[in-house]
Structures are given as C-alpha cells and as structure tokens.
What does this fold into?
Amino acid sequence: MAENPFAGGSIKYVHACYLNRNASNRDESKFVKSVLKQSKFADEKYNTLKYMKESVESYIVSKYLAEEFSNVSPFKESIMFIGVNIIKIEEKGEFFSIEDYYDGLFKKWSYDLGFVYEDEYSAILDAFAHWSYQATNEYLVVTDLQGCFN
It folds into this structure.
C-alpha cells in the first residue's frame, strides 16, 4: 500500500496498492493493482467493519440499479459499477474498501451534493440518476458518478 493517498473525495482517501490474491504464492506477477479507500475521519466509529459494510452497501445498491437501468435503457452505452470488497490491514488495524484499479482517464461527473460538471455532460448518466429516483419510488437517487469513461 502506498503510504500517501493519490486522491481523495469528501469522506475518503484513495491509496494505490498491489493485492496478492493468493497469500501462499509470493510471485509478484500474481499481484493485482488495486485501490484502497480509507475514511478521512479520525473518529473510531468510522474505522469499523460495521461502517465499511454500510459504505459498501451503497455500491451494491448502485450496481444493482445500474444493471436494471441497462435492461430498460434506450442508450447503446451501458453503465457499470465495479465490484467493491472490504479488507482489514492487520498491521494498521484499519478497515478499507478495496476495488480493482482501472487504467484510463478518470473523470468525476457529479457529486452527491447535486453538482454536475457541465463540461463533461453525459446524457446517459443524467438519465440514470433520474431513473434511479423514479425506480425506487423517490426513495433513493444515485449520484457521485465517476470513473473511466469511454
């Protein structure tokens, strides 16, 4: 894990790391470039398995909604949410969310506070955010859309 974060959002630091998915095999070619996300808050409650499970739950719901949107969307493109897991680094005694690293131009399209980058407008992402609100009977809206866009 890189000691210093290479990025950060409003509530998490983002660290690069290499994950060995087979602890019994130390062959460095088996390591996968990954991203660790760590809570920015010093309060101990933000470094618990419970907090990380709640955080990852929003990814799982968003991923499900994106898949459902793709089934009904008139757009040729699709929206994909990557898989997210939880990891505890024993040496640090801290929990992190972990994702695969993706090469490409990373863009942040919208924030969870409603801000949308108009220079990077995407009709499909705008439609998805609106659709998520309608599909959940106005209970949820998926925002904070970002990633590698093609």
Observations:
- The CA atoms of residues 10 and 140 lie 20 Å apart.
- The helical segments are 49-72, 123-135.
